[in-house]
Amino acid sequence: MSLLQVVGLGKSYDTETKVLENVNFDIEAGEFVSIIGPSGAGKSTLLRCINRMVTISEGNVLFDGANVGTLGKKQLRRLRTNIGMVFQHYNLVPRLTVIENVLHGRFGYKTTLQGFLGRFTEQEKKRAFYLLQKLGIEEHAYKRCDQLSGGQQQRVGIARALIQDPKLVLCDEPIASLDPNASKVIMDHLKSITSELGITCMVNLHQVEVAQQYSDRIIGLNQGKVVFDGSNHQLTDDRINRIYGTQTRELITV
Ligand SMILES: Nc1ncnc2c1ncn2[C@@H]1O[C@H](COP(=O)(O)OP(=O)(O)OP(=O)(O)O)[C@@H](O)[C@H]1O
């Protein structure tokens, strides 16, 4: 069974507009998939339906056998420990240290009191340092996050997602606020560390060439519909133009 199955997914925030319409795809464990498409196509909404940060209006999202749309509170908490998230604006607590921010990724496993008191095991702290070292920012562990560059902050965001021990990481435009050099560092780390740890990765991207360079597979969205689903080799210039076109609502055959 695929790790993630999206079946007939539809999403509306209001009664008039369908932001996602009949979206269907499966993601296998270990895949590195990019989602591309014009602004407003529904890329962020798609990721948010997968971990139910927004409610699902139609269809089903099945993650590791669980029907995401119908999970109760406790099961939803478990789902969110299995799905890490990396954000465009990092979503760190700026006045806390790097290591504290990383350890926040363990909150899903704690009781409220443990979380409040900041109780973490030696093993969790070791794991946090290991991830920071892998991401090349171990030396900044005790600095406040607001003293780091954007690229370094995003690496903290990645470490925080990975310390959850997730099966899937959803990255919502992780390099949109970074310059090309920092973007390359982030994409290199994301690719290598998820592949090494066997974690499946879905990345929303605005930069088509970055999607082509790093992904096994690319899904193109336009006006809430999947219009392309294929390998980076199949993503020709003509198909790119159609994904970003104003008339494209039908599947582009590959
Ligand atoms: N919370 C919300 N309430 C109402 N409408 C929303 C909400 N979030 C997104 N939308 C609308 O849904 C549509 C898709 O937005 P979404 O952010 O998913 O697209 P996107 O492809 O990620 O865009 P971008 O690349 O610009 O980030 C847009 O028309 C947006 O205005």
Automatic annotation (TrEMBL):
Keywords attached to this entry: ATP-binding, Cell membrane, Membrane, Nucleotide-binding, Phosphonate transport, Translocase, Transport
ABC transporter domain ranges (all copies): 4-248
Gene3D superfamilies named among the record's database cross-references: P-loop containing nucleotide triphosphate hydrolases
Cross-referenced PROSITE patterns: ABC_TRANSPORTER_1, ABC_TRANSPORTER_2
InterPro entries assigned: AAA+_ATPase, ABC_transporter-like_ATP-bd, ABC_transporter-like_CS, ABC_transpr_PhnC, MetN_ABC_transporter-like, P-loop_NTPase
Keyword Nucleotide-binding found: yes
The keyword Translocase belongs to this UniProt entry's keyword annotation: yes
Classification via Pfam families: ABC_tran
Record-level GO cellular component terms: membrane
Single GO molecular function: ABC-type phosphonate transporter activity
Listed name of the protein: Phosphonate ABC transporter ATP-binding protein
Source species of the chain: Virgibacillus salarius
Name of the encoding gene: phnC
